[in-house]
Amino acid sequence: MTQDTDVVVIGMGPGGEQVAGRLAESGLRVTGVEAELVGGECPYWGCVPSKMMIRAANLLAEARRIPGVAGHAEVTPDWAPVAARIRAEATDDWNDQVAVDRFTAKGGHLVRGRGRLTGPGRVSVNGETYQARRGVVIATGTRSWAPPIPGLEAVPYWTNRDAVAAKEPPGSLLVLGGGAIGLELAQAFARFGTQVTVVEALDQVLPLEEPESGELIADVLRAEGLVVRTGARAASVRHDGTTFTLTLDGGEELTAQHLLVATGRRPELSGLGLDTVGLDPAARALEVDEHMRAAPALWGVGDVTGRGAFTHVAMYQAEIAVRSVLDQEGPAADYRALPRVTFTDPEVASVGLSEAQARERGLRVRTGIARVPSSARGWIHKAGNEGLVKVVEDADRGILVGATAAGPAGGEVLYGLAVAIQARVPVDPLRHMIYAYPTFHRAVEDALAQLR
Predict the structure, then answer these.
(1) Is 194 found in the same domain as 120?
(2) What value does the mean pLDDT of the chain take?
(3) Of the candidates 341, 345, 342, which has an alpha carbon nearest to the alpha carbon of residue 61?
(4) CB of 268 within 8 A of CB of 140?
(5) pLDDT tens, 280-301?
(6) Which domain range does residue 444 map to?
(7) pTM above 0.90, yes or no
(8) pLDDT of the residue at 354
């Protein structure tokens, strides 16, 4: 059977749900297709529950910082309220009925299953075909990716989903991958008593960030008792029923009760039928233009586009796609001030280009760095005041093209820097504006003064 509709949205994660809901509210007949949970990775296994874990872990850390500042404190970690809160947020053990009702209340029609293009505007789901008059939006996100390490495919390793769903912290944990997800979960579990070892193949943790940020976080984690191994490549993995053994190049063996693989996420395009509309199903990501078009009457939003695996990017792209589907005018996509935050403690927030990326683009670069502990607010804050602000200037244009704010509330401090980069505010006026005292963001003024 073939059913007519106006738009089919394949994948109802944050971006897909936003597109589907907004188009349904506009009066279009919208068919949303989802094989798992409406809402996607973020509310059930990603952004939201992981930050609940981090919030709980940070409270423990703050209590442990009381001695020498405010008296004495005894801290007894208890994972039970963390697990209970996550399950409550995920609506009774990962039930998406609230999200489904939210979509259908706007007039949308939900189909459970995996959608596949069978031609322009045609999507097959569970043997039925939906013909979309206006077109199709692909928002299928990404999936956890595991490297081809001998033995890994045969062992019961954790992904972020398993870590978030844990009802108690493991006694020991190997974390393969020192990126944002790996470090956030590693630090959270460690603060609840887990013995954690982080193994990163590259020479720094948070390899996408400035080297100063990677060094800062590695030092903090080691001071908290985590083992952090950089430049360490896994050669093989085995599991004897109770213990994981990770063998590194060179023969060294690391063991733990659980193994968390946090080596990144990748889109899966092979099952989407992209070849039926003239696109490459073997591509690394779905290439879209500045209005989210991948082909005539076909749009893509979110992680599947390879523009940054962040909910805020998916939501940003969703609004652009909605305007494009409705033939409305509006700004095209602009990623020069794309922000990201790693919610370790301290937070590592960055926007725009790193120093290395700016130099690779041939820019004449000047940088400035200010250390948070040397600022007035950092000195006042004392315990847990690790951090830095780094700014990257295009010296020829006299504007910032990148910045990092690492430290307490680093993600909040980043906002002003993101505005400066987005609006191309000249550096000279930034140097001479008034910065409230004593604040963490006042370190921005110090970093600008250090531009060299």
Answers:
(1) no
(2) 97
(3) 345
(4) yes
(5) 999 999 999 999 999 999 999 9
(6) 339-449
(7) yes
(8) 98
